[in-house]
Write a structure and sequence with these properties.
Elements: H1 10-20, E1 25-27, H2 34-39, H3 46-51, H4 55-64, H5 77-89, H6 95-108, H7 119-133, H8 137-143, E2 146-150, E3 153-154, H9 160-167, E4 174-176, E5 178-180, H10 182-185, H11 192-203, H12 210-226, E6 231-234, H13 246-257, H14 264-284, E7 288-293, E8 295-296, H15 301-307, E9 315-316, H16 322-334, E10 341-345, H17 351-358, E11 364-366, H18 376-389, H19 409-427, H20 433-452
């Protein structure tokens, strides 16, 4: 790839060439499969690598009008790949247009532009490289210079593959679990009682009320911590009520155990109790909590029912209720239970609300541009807004949030944009170059490495 691509400042090019380009990657939030990392099976073809799990690409193909059989259906991988090439050809400005080209160059050494006409050429070239190099998850991780991976794991997971990876001394990348609490918080799901039975079994706890639920959660959190967990995560679409009480939260949970629908007001109080309680537990164990907010899940009912969650139909929700969110953080803080926190939003209209709320509390950071916002303009806007309203240098930098082993090219994408933005300030004598070099290092890998690689 052209070394100046996506870099639009003289100092930005220097920062990229001298600092950012060859730094290792600490990917502290992703959805890669630890099972696939452990088993390390070579990939069959680029269609599988690009399209088997990547709902970013699925969304784009649907937007272009591709029939579902060529997206998640029964069509062959070559036909799916050709359909994607046809769609991406017409999608300039979309980050997938940028990422896909970067992936082809980084992993398959080809600059061939992606189009319907060039699909066969790319298919043949990429598959020849896959076969020759026997490309597999670990080889892609190693070639991308990834030193740390935090997967996303349900609190009831046995973490079997994390243990096996850790025991394999031939693999140098640290693969750690993240304590994802969505399933224990979504008490109105039809299968919630069944999920609690699973949690009972793995925790060795008879769960009958809120107290025993918390006992089970603490056991699982200790188990995760022993496996190197430094992060938690939550990404539900419901807001928590800071004006909660134990009795209401306990009643709501018992109601859910009986398979009954919990009224929304009581449910939000249950969430309020759990958010504050969990934050306190994270603080005790020096675990950083991640809160993904502003998302509405599974907007397309038909696709959700036929394919399941994570099919590419989660959307930006309404603007953040900053007062309610700040009150929740305040409740954590008043009780001395506010853990180190990273907040992500999915609605750009919420920047000022979220950033000013985060800035009211110590070590509550505003996260990287998330999902629908991690395009060029979105990343640049995120950097500038954090710089304007908070402390840019305290941030943790880029993450992939991806299920694809090719997605590490996105770190290079971020680094180019970061260097371009910071370099522009240097060019206009608004920031010294030596300080900029330190800042670039910390945002590319330094801060995440220091916080999570214990």
């Amino acid at each position: 790839m052209n070394k100046t691509k996506y870099i639009y400042s003289k100092a930005g090019q220097l920062l990229y060439d001298e600092v950012a380009r060859d730094l290792p990657i600490a990917d502290y939030h992703c959805h890669l499969s630890p099972k696939e990392i452990y088993e390390d099976k070579p990939f069959d073809n680029i269609g599988v690598m690009w399209l088997e799990k990547d709902h970013y690409k699925w969304r784009l193909m649907r937007a272009f009008g591709i029939e579902e059989q060529y997206i998640t259906g029964k069509a062959g991988w070559k036909d799916k790949f050709f359909a994607y090439c046809k769609a991406i050809e017409h999608s300039p400005g979309n980050p997938l247009y940028h990422w896909s080209a970067m992936e082809l160059k980084q992993y398959f050494d080809t600059d061939t532009s992606i189009s319907e006409e060039n699909a066969q050429t790319i298919w043949d070239k990429a598959n020849a490289v896959i076969k020759q190099k026997k490309l597999s998850p670990r080889k892609l991780i190693a070639s991308s210079n990834v030193i740390y991976i935090a997967t996303t794991d349900d609190i009831a997971d046995d973490l079997q593959y994390h243990k096996l990876i850790k025991a394999d001394k031939s693999f140098k990348t640290v693969v750690a679990p993240t304590f994802r609490t969505d399933n224990v918080l979504l008490i109105n799901k039809p299968d919630y009682a069944e999920y609690i039975k699973r949690l009972e079994k793995v925790s060795g706890t008879n769960i009958t009320d809120l107290k025993s639920l918390c006992e089970a959660v603490e056991k699982r959190l200790d188990y995760f911590a022993k496996q190197g967990c430094s992060l938690s995560d939550v990404g539900i679409q419901y807001e928590a009520d800071a004006d909660f009480d134990y009795a209401t939260a306990d009643r709501a949970f018992k109601h859910a155990l009986k398979g009954k629908e919990v009224e929304m007001g009581d449910y939000k109080k249950f969430l309020g109790y759990m958010f504050v309680y969990l934050s306190g537990q994270y603080k005790k164990r020096d675990i950083t909590q991640q809160i993904h907010t502003g998302v509405y899940r599974n907007a397309n009912t038909r696709l959700f029912e036929s394919i399941g969650p994570d099919c590419g139909c989660d959307i930006s929700s309404n603007s953040l209720d900053a007062v309610s969110f700040a009150r929740l953080l305040d409740e954590m803080d008043k009780r001395n239970q506010l853990a180190k926190t990273v907040v992500y939003i999915l609605n750009p209209a919420s920047y000022y609300q979220a950033l000013t709320a985060c800035g009211s509390f110590r070590d509550v950071l505003f996260g990287a541009a998330w999902w629908h916002m991690d395009h060029y303009e979105g990343i640049a806007e995120n950097i500038k807004n954090v710089a304007s309203l908070s402390c840019l240098g305290a941030g943790l930098g880029m993450l992939t949030d991806s299920r694809s082993f090719l997605s590490y090219a996105r770190h290079d994408y971020y680094r180019r944009i970061l260097c371009s933005v910071i370099g522009n300030w240097v060019d206009f004598d608004e920031y010294p170059i030596e300080c900029a070099k330190k800042l670039i290092y910390n945002l590319c890998v330094g801060n995440a490495k220091e916080r999570f690689m214990k």
